[in-house]
Amino acid sequence: MEKHEEMGSEVAAQNEANQELLEEQVENDLTTALDRKDRDAVTTLLEEAHPIDVAIALEEVSDSDILFLNSLVTAEQLAEIVEQAEEDLQIRIMKLLDLDRILAVFQFMSKDDIVDILGNMPVNRRKELLKLMKSGDQTVIRNLLGYSETSAGGIMTTEFISMRNTLTVSQALEKVKEIAPKTEEINILYITNEKKQLVGTVSLRELLVAQNYDTLQDIMEDNVISVEPETDQEDVARLVSKYDLHAIPVVNKRMGIIGIITVDDIIDVIEEENTEDMLKLGGVNKEEDVDSSALESVHMRLPWLLVNLVTAFLASATVSMFEDTISQVVALAASMPIVAGMGGNAATQTLAVVIRGIAIGDIKLHGNEKRILKSIFVGFMNGMVCGILAAFVVSYMYGNPYLGVIILVAMVANMMIAAFVGFVIPVVLKACHADPAVASSIFITTFTDVCGFFIFLGLAKISLPYLIRSESFAKTDGTIYPSAFSFLYRICKLFF
């Protein structure tokens, strides 16, 4: 089994490497051809390369090169490239094209992709384009623009096949042949009743194997999973994943189908949401990327750094409470970051698991008592292992076993606290309708730093006579260890 997994990993790595080489080759060839204004080379490359590879390559070329390419491709070819392009490139291309050319390109694009592009255009230009569209297309697109871009309505497409439940299989097949060329999704047929309410679905496979005289009512699956247009895209993605759907219908209050969300859009949502949560955990705006200007990066990062600065002063104030203790045992200053740092790392681990659990719906806002206790126990076990190792190292480095005992107890306590707050804080923030991915790390860092410093230095202050008994440190015959264990017992009594 392990051998097969290893071979699979090697194949995947090789495929990824080959894909990167292909992208690089397309980019180099296209850039060279555009620089030379070689029409034949550009045309040949566009015919052979995948649109997404062309779109990636176009990110590195000038506006004049994009205009030159535009003069060589059909509206359909350009539509394929634009659909695969990143948002920034889409905006660039749309700025360079005149209105007639944009409308020609839109003819070969799905409505949901058109809406995404229009949403990034200046208002005046968007209005001009809408005026030039067919009245039917205007209505559809205006309705789609009215939904939030992160809602089901904002990511759905209106290109689907809907049929009455009274149609026979043979009638349905004829209709599919007629509609399919103009429709994005044909694998699933959405069945409605006389009131135009969604009542079932029929897969294309089921349609092909059914008897011609059967009605769609006879062969349809009536247990339909659907969402309303206001449903958040994360919830939509969760449903698609849970029920293993290829597409999910969007219905209004009267159960009339108004659109569908396909699995390719769901993949984009998952990638977008995961990226957003990852950046938020680091206090970075989702709009920032590696190519953002220095000023843009400063503008996006500085607010969160200022918030962290405020919380850092709380940790600093905690340390300042024990200045006298630190001045008497300098080793404390070098050791206390270990406790705070390990607590922060433990909390981050718990936080990552909890935020993922919240995102996929595994963790609700209540009924988490067992999970919290488990997290605390995990924190205790990890704290014991790490604390014992840290205690031996510190005892050896400073010749002070009492300091080792203090760091052991402090690390266990702080990692238990870290596990608790790492679980509870994101759940509480979610209950307060705040984004746990944004604010959790700030609160958790503050908790673990303040608690870690307070516990460690507080124990040190209480145990100061033991720490400064230099005559005990000089003993090497083993008689010191019983006193250290006795000291550990006294320390533990403070907590239990």
Largest sheet: 3 strands, mixed
**Reported CATH architecture of the largest domain:** Orthogonal Bundle
- Average pLDDT, rounded to a whole number, is 82
Reading the helices and strands in chain order gives HHHHHHHHHHHEHEEHHHEEHHHHHHHHHH
CATH class of the largest domain: Mainly Alpha
Low-confidence stretches: 470-482
Please identify which CATH superfamily of the largest domain we are dealing with.
SLC41 divalent cation transporters, integral membrane domain
The total count of strands amounts to: 5
> How much helicity do the residues have?
over 70%
Rg calculated over all Cα atoms: 31 Å
- Total domains: 3
Q: Count of helices? A: 25
Task: Give the overall shape.
Answer: elongated
| Biggest β-sheet: strands ordered side by side in the sheet | 1-2-3
What does this protein structure show overall?
With 496 residues, the protein is mainly alpha-helical. It folds into three domains: 19-146, MgtE N-terminal domain-like (MgtE N-terminal fold); 161-265, Roll (CBS-domain); 294-495, Tetracycline Repressor, domain 2 (Orthogonal Bundle). It has 25 helices and five strands. The strands form two sheets. A three-stranded mixed β-sheet has the order 1-2-3. A two-stranded antiparallel sheet has the order 4-5. Helix 3 (51-58) packs across helix 5 (75-84), helix 17 (294-320) runs parallel beside helix 22 (436-462) and helix 19 runs antiparallel to helix 22. The longest helix is centred in the first third of the chain and has 35 residues, at 2-36. It is elongated. The model is unreliable at 470-482 (pLDDT under 50).
